Amino acid sequence: MSLWRYTVPACFVVLFLSACESGENIGGLPVPEAPVRQMDAQQIALGQRIFQANCASCHGAGAEGDANWHQRDADGHYPAPPLNGSGHAWHHSVEKLKAAIINGSPKGQGKMPAWENKLKEQEIEAVIAWFQSLWPQPVYDAWFEMQQRGR
Asked: Is the pLDDT of residue 143 over 70?
């Protein structure tokens, strides 16, 4: 028997196992790596313009939010959180982020107005795309993983 008969299948097994061991595992299954972000430059630019015109006065020009965003203010409301990946926005799906923009803050929690009749869906999606473009890669990777798990 030829040595090649065993060498080729053995190489495939080694390559398969090495690929599986390179990432994290959950329940024995590899965690999907976030794909390279496909950013639409026009959408990002539109989102930045809309954000600067409508959101920056509370969330900051760089989406950095209020320094005390996690503490209630004198009125009992939470100040604007960061959206640049340093706060909790990355814990939410795009659908939940859209709903928060459309509906505003829940009564008694924050001061964000509802943008339902002020911004079009395309504009809201552009704003989200812009602030997601600010997220560091590890934050985006964690967000992507959560989306894959259905959170």
From this structure: yes
Whether 101 contacts 115, CB under 8 Å: yes
d(CA 47, CA 127): 4
| Domains of the chain, first to last | 38-149 (1.10.760.10)
Question: What does the DSSP assignment read for 59-128?
Answer: H-TTS---TTTTS--TTSPBPPPP-SSSSSGGGS-HHHHHHHHHH-SPTTTB-PPP-TTTS-HHHHHHHH
Share of the chain above pLDDT 90, in %: 66
| DSSP state for residue 31 in the 8-state scheme | P
Q: pLDDT for 14-61, tens place per residue?
A: 333 444 444 555 556 565 566 777 789 999 999 999 999 999 999 999
Phi and psi, residue 36, nearest 5° = -60, 130
What is the C-alpha to C-alpha distance for residues 78 and 65, in angstroms, rounded to an integer?
11
SS3 call for 30: strand
Supply 1's token pair. Answer: 């028997």
